[in-house]
Design brief:
With about 180 residues, the protein is an alpha/beta fold. It contains four helices and six strands; from the N terminus they run ββαβαβαββα.
């Protein structure tokens, strides 16, 4: 057998989560009708200067329950005060089943301790406001916001823990820039 070398130049490039948001846009405000696990309303303006991870989910979404929310819990426990983790219950289907009362029980049963907001609706049964503002394709979705309030990741589906951790470490290490 002859020796083979790997041609890195012709290998496919899958990028990193930091590549998802090439042009960093300012994160739009969250439209939340109710907060859980928080004594006060939360706005991104209140979190200026902090790295923020937002996990958009639906409680009846299998990928959210098996991947997205456990990952958000790991981010919260691993990074502690260096990253503010928020949940966003973004209901775009099965509206009658996913009420705030059901969500409260869900958060208790799954031991979700970080703040969770209910994405507000303009019209009953329509697309949630924050989901539209962030152009989310579905759930689970992970959004990372840097200290300057810019979206650095807007990813739909499962994102590898190692890639998320590396991305968060870079964001934590970055100094805020004037926007």
């Amino acid at each position: 057998m002859g020796s083979r070398t790997f041609d890195f130049a012709s290998a496919p490039s899958y990028g990193t989560p930091m590549d998802v948001a090439r042009e960093f846009t300012t994160a739009p405000p969250l439209a939340v009708s109710q907060w859980f696990n928080s004594n006060t309303d939360i706005s991104l303006a209140d979190l200026a200067g902090q790295v923020v991870a937002i996990e958009a989910f639906q409680m009846l979404c299998p990928g959210c329950v098996s991947n997205g929310l456990p990952q958000a819990q790991r981010i919260n426990s691993t990074f502690g005060r260096d990253v503010t983790v928020l949940g966003l219950h973004t209901v775009f289907e099965h509206h009658d089943a996913m009420t705030p009362i059901s969500l409260e029980a869900f958060l208790y049963e799954y031991r979700i301790g970080f703040p969770v907001g209910v994405d507000a609706h303009d019209q009953p049964g329509g697309t949630p406001i924050t989901m539209a503002r962030y152009q989310l394709r579905g759930t689970p979705s992970l959004i990372l916001i840097d200290r300057s309030g810019r979206i650095r990741l807007n990813a739909f589906g499962h994102v590898d823990d190692l890639a998320v951790g590396a991305s968060l470490a870079r964001l934590i290490d970055e100094q805020p820039v004037a926007v």
